[in-house]
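Render this sequence as a predicted structure.
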Amino acid sequence: MVKIMKKQVTFADVEYGNRKRRTRREEFLSMMDKKLPWKRFIELIEPYYFKGERGRPPIGIETMLRMYFLQVWFTLSDESVEDSIYDSYAMRTFMGINFMESQAPDSTTLVKFRKILVDNCIQVQLMYMIAEMLEESGLLMRGGSVVDATIISAPTSTKNKSGERDPEMHSTKKGGQYYFGAKAHISVDAGAGYVRDVETTAANVDDRDVVHVLIRSDDEVVYGDAGYIGIEKRDEIKDDPELSGIEYRINEKRSKIQKTVYGQQEAYARHIEQRKIAVRSKVEYVFHVVKNIFGFRKTPYKGLEKLHARLCALFLSANLYMCARAGRTLS
């Protein structure tokens, strides 16, 4: 049976309620609290959670889930998120904790809860759940996708117990500079810009190696930057009767346009490229939310499995954030 927390009003709530204005953190947490389908999330996690048959009763799933999302949204370590709940009134209110009755879960409890989520691919299921809800609400359209990838840096230091870097991360060169880490490959709806799928690989994996997994079978057109030039010629695309029938609108390299067309033809070619960019730019805003608003620029974990779980939580949160900012509601 799913139990939803009831938030009790305390003297601190009354005192803080007399302030002239709310902070941006409070506004953000209140907005996300209203958008997250807590009941459906809890029902999904409940079969995998502690039964409480022995020892002390486990902390409620919603409490742990709220703590986990605070860690995701503010890019906090396990110890820091515990400290922040005690330090921040906005976070304590979001958690629904009354210190006269209970305390914040400790960092060890959060680690165990996160392990349950990762081991059972819960974050992936939650992301697809949100995408399904967006589609049911008529906010996620079919027929077109935008694909792109971004590099997630990983620590390059070898000052650790093993004396080596993360073996699942690799280096890649972009813009004349080398990066060490992983890649987050995503596909977003070409109409509204909501994330539909996520794949995580090492940074040295070519963007074109993953694109066939991100494309939906009902897509009629796919947009991508110059890194996806030639994808229609790859075996996994041309040998698939559904994928081979898709129109791939991939941006050409600027140098090629300058060398091959002139005069009015060049102006027309640049206009076509700008129209492609106008659609493709939707994916850049998603990366802006994850990297700049949520502050996720470097992976805190070793291994692609944990990173993929974190990215799924981030991108489902980005979908809800964009939905809230647009004034949309989920059914």
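Summary. Residues 11-119 form one domain. The chain has a mean pLDDT of 88.
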